[in-house]
Amino acid sequence: MADLDVESRTRRLTTLMGVAPRRLLRSMLPALSLVLIMIGIAWLNPRAISYFGFTLMLNLAIPIALATIAQMFIMTGNDLDLSIGTFVGFVGCITATWLREAPLIGALSLIAAVAVYAALGALIHLRSLPSIVVTLGMSFVWQGLAILLLPKPGGSAPDWLLQLMGLKPPWIPFPIVAAIIIAAVAHLGLMRTSYGAILRGSGGNPQAIRRAGWSLLKAKVTLYTLAGLFGVASGMALIGTTTSADANIGNGYTLLSIAGVILGGGEFIGGRVSPVGAVLGALTLALAASPLLTFMRIPPDWQVAANGAILIIVLAARALLSRQEA
Amino acid sequence: MISAESIAARPWIWSFLGALMVWLASIAFTGGYGAGGMITAALSLAVFMVIVGIGQMFVITLGPGNVDLSLPANIGLASAVAMKVMGGSDAMVPIGLAAALGSGAAIGAANYLLIRALRIPPIIATLSASFIVQSIDISYGRGLQIKPPPGFADFTNLQIAGIPVLAILTLIFTIVASLVLHRTVYGRSVAAIGQNPRAASLAGIKVGRVRFLTYTLCGLLGGLNGALLAGYFRGANVDIGNEYLLASIAVVVIGGTSVAGGKANVPGIWGAALFLVLLLTMLNTFGVSAGIRLVLTGLVIVAIITASGRRIRV
What we know:
The structure holds 2 protein chains of 2 kinds.
Chain A: H1 5-16, H2 21-44, H3 51-57, H4 61-76, H5 84-96, H6 98-101, H7 103-126, H8 131-149, H9 159-165, H10 174-191, H11 194-204, H12 206-211, H13 216-242, H14 253-263, H15 275-289, H16 291-295, H17 303-325
Helix pairs in contact in A: 2-15, 2-17, 4-10, 4-13, 4-14, 4-15, 5-8, 5-13, 5-14, 7-13, 9-13, 10-15, 14-15
Chain B: H1 2-9, H2 12-30, H3 35-61, H4 71-86, H5 93-118, H6 122-140, H7 150-157, E1 159-160, E2 163-164, H8 165-183, H9 185-195, H10 197-202, H11 207-232, H12 244-254, H13 266-285, H14 290-308
Antiparallel strand pairs in B: 1-2
Helix pairs in contact in B: 2-13, 3-8, 3-9, 3-11, 3-12, 3-13, 4-5, 4-6, 4-11, 5-6, 5-11, 7-11, 8-9, 9-11, 12-13
């Protein structure tokens, strides 16, 4: 909560004095796990720690980070989006076809897709529907639309998108610059503005927010609209990286995005999320997904298991730290 | 108005009405041709959804956040275990079935241990577990091309007067599950925990033990489903369980079980499973493309949950 800023500052002070080092350690966990993965990669293949190494390894981290932030907005309101993966795939299909051939139609349909997200937020709030089931149904819808649009893998990204995703800024690799920008935008918007506090409050204590005169409907619609916007950004970034699309291209992103938010210290209920943590979690997953495992010579069969194991280890560490804290 | 109220009180009636309507629509389209065959096929496929649906129903009834996402991986692994242990020999069928059930139950127990030991939400615990199970399955079932024993394959496809034997057995199992849910201490405990875990605990219910049993039971049913699917489709496959993640949750919710927990509905699962299978059959009869079929399935799920949604968030 933003209002608790004073408290968090005093907490930080006490932690510096060594009163609650575990709490500090816990909040550092997302960054710590990323650093550990990086150390692992550096140890296994020192050449990977270079400008081009990071550009290659973190290529797919940008769409994952954007999808994770989208999921984070939904989770802020105590909901869960099981359709974000197929939505990213659907956006990818539009990007690789209409957005290139008929930019106006493409842009309009992407705006319409965000509007659908906003409408879902309103529907879920007004009818008190379980978000899991509604988004479950929508995951079929997005997948179906993607297949209708692009029955076979193909299409190609608009040139301006390719140029954007292929940027080579000096000193710092583009994926890292992009991750910092994504984290900063989400952090400033959700953690530093007064309406961001209302949005988090709508998940943390909806009754209090309602009694204080804020519209929970508006909060829910805002959260879903933001999720739609970041989902669109994720799909476009994905196509900018892969250059062509496939109706199933985003399917893995649903689980990745949930795992990213959780790795980043977010929780399923109570509006407790962390945009910076979520981006760090997404980067950890992106690095752990293939570069680390390739360097470790883990056979492809076991790469999925390694992802699961990393999740379990981080969560175990967090559980251990929280228990001792309490 | 009285009838409307009684229907509203039994949301699962909708799923049966829906199943009936899509069936009527399909036979109206074919002019009555294949009406019986459609029901036979729907019953055969609905069985698999009902088996995992009942497991998922017990888990979901435990309360908010309880859901088993590891079912697809579990089903895939169990199908491989069953085929490998049976090794194509009819004599090994009982042992193969037991092995598949054991593999499923072990995964369910492991799920609960993760939830308990790491104190993390079941969604993420079962998700992490499913990653690992999936890898075990990919590695264990690589290039597996063992056919099910002929007797087992025939049994899973056996019909009496157009009614699959598996459907009859599953119906009996459903009745037992219903009795367990409503008439036994265990079943009442599951509902009580779903309504208020703290009150349940103060009332002397061993919450941990009940949750452990429920996750293990759900895993066990996943294992059973894997073995039966491998028999029915004549072979194990890593992807054999994929559709049962969404299907297991969808049949539970469409069938009128509360997602918030504490309120389960067994007959609704049959209605919802038949409805979903018949809906696909209908769209196939209409000859629509895969894309439109997916879009319509999704819209129907959203429409049903919207129609049956209650105004009060629990």
